[in-house]
Amino acid sequence: MSAHAYTEDQLVEQPAIGLFTELGWQTVSALEETFGATGTLLRETKGEVVLVSRLRAALERLNPTLPPEAITAAVDELTRDRSAMSLEADTAA
Questions:
Q1: Which of 56, 31, 25, 52 is CA-nearest to residue 40?
Q2: How far is it, in rounded angstroms, from Cα 9 to Cα 52?
């Protein structure tokens, strides 16, 4: 057994990557990610957690009859900053 057998990479990340691959998902290592319009995941910063271009493409594929304005509204709602919302506000709806 290697000295690094009990790392998060070996115990969590690699099994998760294997499972996603079995399910037909495409995975990518972003360990040395580059940012910008031609970057690894097409995001500007590490803080950009939603891959907007992929989200938009998926929404368009799943909702082919919706007008572009509806897709944009959905993207805006799904990517809205919720950090200032209280737990009470989240559960009250």
A1: 31
A2: 27
Backbone angles phi, psi at 68, to 5 degrees: -55, -35
Burial 34-45 (b: 16+ CB within 10 A, else e): eeeeeeeeebee
Query: Where in the chain are the domains?
Result: 1-31, 34-81
CA distance 89 to 49: 22
Low-confidence ranges of the chain (pLDDT < 50): 1
Nearest CA to 9 out of 1, 17, 41, 23 is that of: 17
33 DSSP assignment: -
Sequence-ordered alpha helix ranges (H) in 1-93: 8, 14-22, 52-62, 68-78, 87-92
